């Protein structure tokens, strides 16, 4: 633990990464990567191409300072792999949005795909497993990871949204949690939508306005008595009407 917070070794502060060929000055460390040592800006950005929610520390020759990947120039591009959309500079260009992940609250730069016929911004976020808090021009999103985590914590540990949001604020900045973008209200709205949509999914609902078809995807109910599953064969044979009775009540 002490070694991970030690400054770069004097005389060996070169970056151990491969993208700079080992010539860069190693001053950046990631708190969330399972790597050791300090990397240069080029290597740390390359390592986090698809990890936009990792927290970075910079050695400023005096102490470790918390930085963000956004500070180092990280941009999440949509629609063209790792490359920016050719029309990215149209309209508003790259935009900042607030994202909640299991590592805390982050501000991430979004390089939307603005091609003709491109998905909406909300659809582009959902494509990355990020749930937008609003549909038109979303500026806040919550990762599916956080929503699954909260859903379990809510059921098992009885954690409420207020405490969870407060914990996330403190995880982001435990010295000054009030300076962190308040995530409570958008989180409260999104977690409700998440819960409803998961229930629909479990019930085999693709569109709540369309009646379900026979054979549609659905989770079996573990407490419903079913012949050859949770019912003894002899009981069914002895009392043919028992299937209907049990199926209706489910209380046996
Ligand atoms: Zn990392
Ligand atoms: Zn490097
Ligand atoms: Zn595009």
Folded structure, characterized:
With 252 residues, the chain is an alpha/beta fold. The protein folds into three domains: 1-73, no CATH class; 75-202, no CATH class; 220-252, no CATH class. The protein has seven helices and eight strands, in the order βαβββββαββααααα. The protein has helices spanning 41-47, 121-127, 144-156, 161-172, 184-202, 233-238, 242-249; strands at residues 28-30, 56-59, 64-67, 75-77, 95-101, 104-111, 130-132, 140-143. Strands 4-6-5-8-7 form a five-stranded mixed beta sheet. A three-stranded antiparallel beta sheet has the order 1-2-3, with no helix packed on it. A hairpin with a 2-residue loop joins strand 5 (95-101) and strand 6. The radius of gyration is 25 Å and the shape is globular. The chain binds zinc ion (3 copies). The site of one zinc ion has 8 residues, from loops. The site of one zinc ion (ZN) has 8 residues, from loops. It comes from Sphaerobolus stellatus (strain SS14). This is CxC2-like cysteine cluster KDZ transposase-associated domain-containing protein. Pfam families: CxC2.
